[in-house]
Amino acid sequence: MYMPRHYQETRSEALHGLVDAYPFATVVTHADGELTANHLPFERVGAVLHGHVARGNEMAALDGAPVLVIFRGPHGYVSPNWYLTKHETGREVPTWNYAVVHVHGRLKVIEDATWLRALLERLTDRHEASEPAPWHVSDAPEDHIEKSLRAIVGIEIAIERIEGKFKLSQNHPERNRLGVIAGLRRRDGDGDAELADWMATQETSKP
């Protein structure tokens, strides 16, 4: 990943925080001379990612293969009109702000039904937590659960390397960054408030 120094994020709490907040990731593998991308939610436990795929997914046959897992946080278009310096010099252009984390590791395929069921229960409980009447795995008939478990395999990826790129206008003076935050809040499109919050947090966390 192209990584200008001022966009590089190395704090483990920030990298893990993005992974935990945006668990739906893209998994890139290479087999038989082809690159393949799959998309699935993960659970992070320390320095290990857990997930599952359909038994027919090509990843189920790639035990031990190197993988790249891409987690994408908030992102959005940035207008040059939001930079105060643009109104002074005109020397600004549009860009796109975003935060991403890349995880490198090796794929481990898990066939253990007990492990799989526990994973599904944890994932379901997490994502059902905001529902007025959360659904639980145990709500389904037992034979249906067993059939569903036979149709999937577990995925485990120990994190060997993790890198983050938080492109949040760090290459601009503070007044321009504050202008971008204000512009995002004013536009208030899909994800704009979220991106503005990330930028604002970065401003308040600076020494």
TrEMBL record:
Looking up Gene3D superfamilies in the UniProt record yields: Electron Transport, Fmn-binding Protein, Chain A (2.30.110.10)
| Pfam families, alphabetized | FMN_bind_2
Among SUPFAM superfamilies, the record links this protein to: FMN-binding split barrel (SSF50475)
Q: Which InterPro entries does UniProt cross-reference here?
A: Split_barrel_FMN-bd, TR_PAI2-type
Top-level taxon of origin: Bacteria
List the PANTHER family.
Answer: PROTEASE SYNTHASE AND SPORULATION PROTEIN PAI 2 (PTHR35802:SF1)
Descriptive protein name: Negative transcriptional regulator, PaiB family
